[in-house]
Amino acid sequence: MEQNIILIGFMGSGKTTNGRRLARKLNMDFIDTDSLIEEKNKISIEEIFKRYGEKYFRKLENETILSLSNCKSKVISTGGGIILNHRNIDILKENGIVILLESSVDNICNNLKNSYKKRPLIQKKNWKEDVRILMKERKELYENSADITVNVDGKKHNQIVNEICCIIKERA
Ligand code: S3P
């Protein structure tokens, strides 16, 4: 498969875990844009936000997407805020199919509670409220950016990955 498969969705929707599994199953390379940003800049996402702020992070995020514009046959997991800049989505769509991992706020909060990854945008004591607010702000952007939507609520990883594989095969 020449086209990239791009996973978008809110923090904690399972983009990285499912992306890695999907890549393994389809024998494709896996790229995680947050990890790429950290590797290229030799600094953690948390530290970027702390030292330079969100705006600077978004700039690095966009540069990273641009650097991927010629890549093929990759499964790409993106950061949850990738949809905030429509140019990111335009670039990714040139060479790939964008799949939204859709999830309820409750499911997301549950996943985030058990996550090892530090997320600078939801560090406050009432972080669940911030998840709710952010989701409300972004929901439409996620929906409008997606070629395909897969709801992940209550599903196991292998079920999600199989579902994505079926959809992709149907479209091929
Ligand atoms: C962000 C999501 C994070 C990371 C950064 C900002 C967001 O990635 O890029 O903390 O704005 O939703 P995950 O979606 O992998 O948590």
Structural description of this entry:
With 172 residues, the protein is α/β, with parallel strands linked by helices. The protein has 8 helices and 5 strands. Strands 2-3-1-4-5 form a 5-stranded parallel β-sheet, with helices on both faces. Helix 1 (15-26) packs across helix 8 (157-171), helix 2 crosses helix 4 (54-67) and helix 3 (45-52) packs across helix 4. It starts with a strand and ends with a helix. The mean pLDDT is 96. Residues 11, 15-16, 34, 45, 79-81, 117, 119-121 line the site of shikimate-3-phosphate.
Write the layout of secondary structure elements.
Layout: E1 4-8, H1 15-26, E2 29-32, H2 33-41, H3 45-52, H4 54-67, E3 74-77, H5 86-94, E4 96-102, H6 105-113, H7 127-145, E5 148-151, H8 157-171
Parallel strand pairs: 1-3, 1-4, 2-3, 4-5
Helix pairs in contact: 1-8, 2-4, 3-4
Bound molecules: shikimate-3-phosphate (S3P).
